[in-house]
Amino acid sequence: WYASYINLLLYESAHQDYNSSFVRLCNLLYLFSRNSPSGEHGRINLTQESIAEILTVTRVSAARSLGRLRDEKIIIPHRSRIQIIDQKALESYCSDETLQS
């Protein structure tokens, strides 16, 4: 599943430059959740540091965006994973290009 995510991320990278770090985070979480192995739907095994590295943002910026999603009850962050509890709300923040891929 990781290889299929990488392929999607490469496709998305062309569309990510103009999106805010928050939208890029939402896109990342959406793509990971959509391509997660069966039985793990809505659970993403990534740390804040890994997310920051993937998105090329600071850890503080990633934490701020994750905090916003947590406060809006879209995700529940855990120690080294994230649980998506409101997929529709997450999708509402994603770019159109991501949702159409």
UniProtKB/TrEMBL annotation:
<dbReference type="InterPro" id="IPR012318">
    <property type="entry name" value="HTH_CRP"/>
</dbReference>
<dbReference type="InterPro" id="IPR036390">
    <property type="entry name" value="WH_DNA-bd_sf"/>
</dbReference>
<dbReference type="InterPro" id="IPR036388">
    <property type="entry name" value="WH-like_DNA-bd_sf"/>
</dbReference>
<dbReference type="GO" id="GO:0003677">
    <property type="term" value="F:DNA binding"/>
</dbReference>
<dbReference type="Pfam" id="PF13545">
    <property type="entry name" value="HTH_Crp_2"/>
</dbReference>
<feature type="domain" description="HTH crp-type">
    <location>
        <begin position="19"/>
        <end position="88"/>
    </location>
</feature>
<protein>
    <submittedName>
        <fullName>Helix-turn-helix domain-containing protein</fullName>
    </submittedName>
</protein>
<dbReference type="GO" id="GO:0006355">
    <property type="term" value="P:regulation of DNA-templated transcription"/>
</dbReference>
